[in-house]
Amino acid sequence: MKNFPFLVFILAIAVLGFIAGGLITLNQVFPYRFLYQANLAGHALFKQKTRYSDPYHTDLWKRARNAEKGVVVYDPGKADNGYTLYSSAHAQNVFLIDMHGRVVHEWHMQYASFWDGSAEVKHPVPPSNMFITRAYLYPNGDLLALYIGVGDTPWGYGLVKMDRNSHLLWKYLAHTHHDLDVGPDGRVYVLTQAIVDTPITRFTQLKPPWIEDYVSILSPHGKLLQKIPLTPALLDSEYGRLFASLPWFSVTGTGDFLHTNAIQVITPGEAANFHHGRAGDLLISFRELNTIAVLDPDQGKIVWALHGPWIGQHDPDLLPNGNIIVFDNNGRFGPGGRSRVVEFNPDTLATVWSYHGDAAHFFQSGIRGGEQRLANGDTLITEEQAGALLEVTPGGDVVWKFVNPERRGPANEYIPIVSVATRITPDWLAPDFRRSLAPEYK
Q1: Model confidence, pTM
Q2: Residue ranges per structural domain of the chain
Q3: Which of 167, 228, 399, 417 could form an SS bridge with 78, CB 3.0 to 4.6 Å?
Q4: Rounded-to-integer distance, Cα 252 and Cα 210, Å
Q5: Which of 295, 297, 287, 283 minimizes the C-alpha distance to 227?
Q6: What is the DSSP letter of 420?
Q7: What does the pLDDT look like over 99-136, one tens digit per residue?
Q8: How far apart are CA 220 and CA 215, in angstroms?
Q9: Other C-beta atoms within 10 Å of 77: how many?
């Protein structure tokens, strides 16, 4: 046993290392911060290499609930007839369909065709893991398209504007994510994010590094005009204590303390009956805080916030009557799925209208979803993770339903998610663009 003293020495070093590591972790002294960040990076790399290698096992695809495809419900006398704009995770395309589900126009642009070395994303994921998560249509057929790639942090691949023929007009290759809107003056408001390493001294449990969300304001030609960080905008307001309500998984692991997922420019018509913001302010959604808020971009500050009876919400929209309608992803309990769409009075929190599933009609989208109140009073609902679009009357009747017709997988068992859809009134389109649509479907 001539090696015994050496083995004892090695064991002692290991024990001392273990004890030192415990003391460093317990007291969070040097080099705790470096070890903590290395651990986060290692976990992120492992997830990227394992969880996202098969696109059908990412959140861009779900097992189809049934065999439905295309338009499966349509009542022409009750629906708010027009075109519907949406995108699908199976391709980097955006579709404009008629009420029968027929494609009347299509935009297509591969991320690889405009990506360059100026992009904040240096190593894009494969095209199968990319998705146009939001699209905004101009009357003349120009289109804004917001690209994401699953498996990367920070999230978001860039925003482009293309013409009706899918020719690039401009690009903004920051980490754009989740949502965008266009103001009356043509400026573009888009959510962006970055990883920062600054301690949040007011809430020491929120450890760096963490993900900062920004509102980036672009000129109509895609030039950055202003960039507003949202963590200080909330922390420095009277609503900063909302950070104390963060769920454990955000505090202990993800660093995604806000998860901002929606933005809407408040117009003069919408501000007229709303008591918590003015025209030009921005209605935004903080998913991790279960909070809807108003940002004053001139002050760079949150001026109103509401923590309501919803969980993991998406796409709050301010309505002209002063109410807010929101997709509540996980706040319903009972048969028929945990999601619902709720219109509520922001002064009283009283529910004015809601739609949800039941034992016969399952309705659920856990991490995505949206809605649009239509001119006739119906609501166009996007059940993103079911790949379905529903038009629902105030009485709760489904008068139009479209299910993504695409299927993939070994047995065609997977359906791609769809983006939040927009109903387009034909008269809103410029006459020359409308004339260019598929002629048999006008």
Answers
A1: 0.90
A2: 11-50
A3: 399
A4: 11
A5: 297
A6: P
A7: 999 999 999 999 999 999 999 999 999 999 999 999 99
A8: 15
A9: 6
